[in-house]
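From the pipeline queue, job 12 of 40. The input is one protein chain; the requested action is below.

Action: predict structure.
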Amino acid sequence: MVAKRINAEKIIQWILVVLGCIVLGFSTSTFLTKNSIVSGGLSGIGIIVQQLVDPTQKFMVVDIVVWGSSIGLWLLSLFTLGKQFALKTLVATVLYPISLTIFLRVPIFIEIAEIIAGNGTTGDLLICSIFGGLIAGIGISLTFLGKGSTGGVDVISFLLNKIFGFSVSIV
């Protein structure tokens, strides 16, 4: 009975990590990247790089920056936070950039983003900032509830928690 409960808990944790990454990828691509709203983290760095490289957004580099940075931080998590954490983070390190890439580059999702995100007027930017932050927060929270990480700078938060005892939500 106890083994089944432990297995069910682990399955739920994995589902939360996967769902959180997909929700975060959707929010980042649809609300934030579309309107060049920098929210922080690796995607925020990617949006800044996007503006420096190609502000017209004819070629997106946000997901490329996220991919490269995520791999480096995953290696850090492997050596500092343990294999179990690194395994869940590996899933997120792959799944979040994949979902971000799909939402940024697949034509149907590009059209959905155009409909949802508006035309970049001030009112649209405010609404996209609010909804983008809210939905991204939900995605990250789901991943944390699954005892995982979305990769990226979350790894730094968990590392600071391990070393200094800082709350992950505050860092």
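Job complete. The mean pLDDT is 87.
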